[in-house]
Batch of 2 targets.
Target 1
Amino acid sequence: MTLVMVVDDDQDLAEMLGIVLTGAGIDVDLVSRGDEVLEVFRNNPPDLVLLDVMLPGLDGIEVCKLIRAESMVPIVMLSAKGDTHDVVRGLEAGADDYMVKPFRHPSELIARIRTRLRRTNADVSGQLTIGDLTIDVTAHEVIRAGKKIALTRLEFDLLVALAKEPGRVFTRDALLGEVWGYRHSTDTRLVNVHVQRLRSKVEHDPEHPQIVMTVRGVGYKAGVLGGS
Amino acid sequence: MNRYARKVRTSLASKVIFSTVLLSLGVVWLTGSALYSQLSDGVKQVNLETSLAEARSSFFNAQYQFLLVNGAPDSIISKTVQDVIISSTAVSLNQDRKSIFLSRFEEFNRVKSAGVAPDYSTATDELLVSSFPAELRKRVRSSDLVEYQYTTVKYDNRSDANVLIAGRRIAIPESGNYEMYLVYSLTNQNTTLSLIKSSLLLTGFALLFLIALITWLVVRQVVRPVREAARIAQQFTQGEFSQRMKVESSDEIATLGTAFNEMALSLESQITRLENLSRVQQRFVSDVSHELRTPLTTLRMAAEVIYGAKAGFDPTISRSSELLVAQLDRFERLLEDLLEVSRFDAEVAVLEPVEFDLVRLIERCIEDVRANAQDHPISIDIDHETEYVMIKADIRRVERIMRNLLSNALDHADEKPILVSVVATETEVGIGVRDYGSGMDQSSLSRVFDRFWRADPSRARVRGGTGLGLSIALEDARLHNGELDAWGSPGHGAHFVLTLPIVAGNQISGRPIKPQPKDYPQPI
């Protein structure tokens, strides 16, 4: 059974999250302090961490960085702060998704958790290429000239989504649906931030991207090798 | 030239100095001219009297000499004539040159000796006799007195000269009656006069310069504190409240400084107080909104769980769960709007511009609003002149403006159609949302963007709006440097026009769509 670690200092919300997740057939491990997360995490590794930002003991951002340092486990941030700089800060710390309280519907939470849990790109296997990069989908590796490039799971998913349909121009909404599992949302900040992070890792010159190309006014598409 | 004219107009010191110098110039000119004319008259008078007295004495001497040689032989007389010429042309110290002109106009019959009477007519210094005034010569011939005249005479070998000519009739024995003229050069007198003139001019200009200098010094004393006050006032408008004027004396300027400083102090403390007050208040609103979010999340989830299980409940409980969910929705929207308003009030709202197709966004908003308004058969027509309009703006805010305008129109459309129009120019784009409902009067129009304001308090809020939508829409528009205008007329519906720059932050130079709709006053 799937195990989700819920880190929130608000007992009632944590309990409610527990009820909703258990109702969806997901096991829940409740932690209420930031400085207790790592110990519980090591003793009983979850499949996903649902992490509040404001926590006693240790700030959610710091907790996120600590987990990221030793695991690729999906992290979904949960916060009452929805300003762009808050969202960007959470994503920069290594979170895969950032949900602003209060979310519209419990099913939205379930859907986003399931998307993160799903072995993404199950329909794709073998090797893909994008620009001068080779993506080994099965082994979850990105290789340039024989060297491995370390990407987070989400960055990897983003790259695969672009690479598997080389001619297609993805709008930000489409990418949100493809990679994050959103059906409808205008919060395209997630896409922008992750594209920037991805570019900083895979582009030769992030100012002039050749792999994740911007299509002005529309969105993004995969770069073609040797093309401009 | 214009630059100087402007400087004179804009600087108090320059203005005062300019007018002082101008007025002083008049005064100095008048006194200088009067002084000069008095001085020159005096100099001329003295010169004339001296010259005439000397001329008289010369003429007397000549007459006397000629009287003595009456009856003497021609050689003696000729010698006497030479003597007279030499003694008469001898110059004194202050004289420049003196010429003599003798001309016989009447020949005597010789009595003592025989032969033709010799003519002793002569002119010294190569004086051209033809340049002598005829009128003077006539007077001299017919008079027994010394006659004189100022004139210009010509010389054979040098330039013309201003002269004083004194003349008298002289009889030379055994020869005839002569006109004898003494020609006094006025060069020295003129030199004196021009010396006086240039001294006066020099003094005048020096005086003007000194007056300007003194004025400048005096004006500076007054203007400097005024300038300082202006500079400090300017810094005040830029939010620099710590500046104060220096108070060094106890005159009126110091009073100005003290009063100014008191005003500054009072302003500073008022502003600081207000700033603190509003900061505390904004902080409070923001904190409340954030603190409410966590319990609201729990509430929502609990309500959804109950709502999801409503099929098994008693109808009243089932309906209650529906109301609970609906009201939580409304509560959440209100919270979001309050938070947004507090961001605007705290001036921390940030524009996040991206490039997008406005027409597609509007179409999507219309679809969404239409989907939520199934109970109201309302048609929305979009009338745009181009296929797409690419703009650079904060897509989240533009979408929120459109949703607010559309749901506001839906609330007041009275089930009549709503028309959305888009007109783009090079620099800006206008979006009009027109409804044909009950409309608004002037007093409603002036308050339509006020927070929590309702056009008709008795009217039910159909869409469940928060009452903050239009107010937030206006702030959103202005954050882009755009504008949101409202037009309304009772019975003729309303028209809201959003004008945005094509690139957020640029200035808009006009309204592609006028707030007054084209179809007014004909209602459809």
Note: Residues 2 and 26 of chain A are 5 Å apart (CA to CA).
Target 2
Amino acid sequence: MKKRILIVEDNALVREMYRSALKPLGAELLETQRGLLAADIARREQPSLVILDLVLPDISGQEVLKLIKSAPETARIPVLAVTNSATAGDEASLKALGFAGLITKPVNIKAFCDAVAKFVAP
Amino acid sequence: MSGPLPARWTNAIGQREVLLGRDTVQRMAEIYLAELDSVIEAIIAALREGDLATARRAAHHLGANAGSLDFMDLADLAQRVEVCSLHGDQDGALQTLQTSIPIAQRSASLLRNHFGLV
């Protein structure tokens, strides 16, 4: 069965970059620009990974993480935080919140693909 | 814009094209150009209204766009605007944004020249 990745990102340019960068992984990409929709999509689609921007138009990435981790159907899904150093804090703090890891913007494409591949490898 | 494209940026965008494909990078450039003026205007308007949360989000957007196309100077300045907004420094954010406007205009010229966009 094809693996799924849920991308929660409001920036169209960044989504365009993700689509191309992640194509070689062969995973199905699901996308939303709204944090409030992300937990519902995760519950319904059961992705192998969520890639989550921490700065969204409606709610913060940290709040999205809480929604995902507080529901039994989605609590096990790993969530990678994506943000710049102004917002990120340190990776240890994010991991303590429940994130599986941190990808810093501007995204290094190879490092990004390597980080994602760990969660969707066959 | 006149003069040759700066070698560092040309190399960096060339590497992006190798990794992502030229068509993808051109689509990214088109999005960048379509959004640039409105994002800067949104930051200015939000800062003038004292709406620092909106200014912060718009600066975050500008920084992500610029960084994704290897305009690292502009990405750094946008991040400084974001940090100033986060810490309530409205004047600092506005001053930093003013510094970034000519750099943003130059980035647009570089992309138009590189991809032959109008």
Note: Chain B has one domain: 7-111.
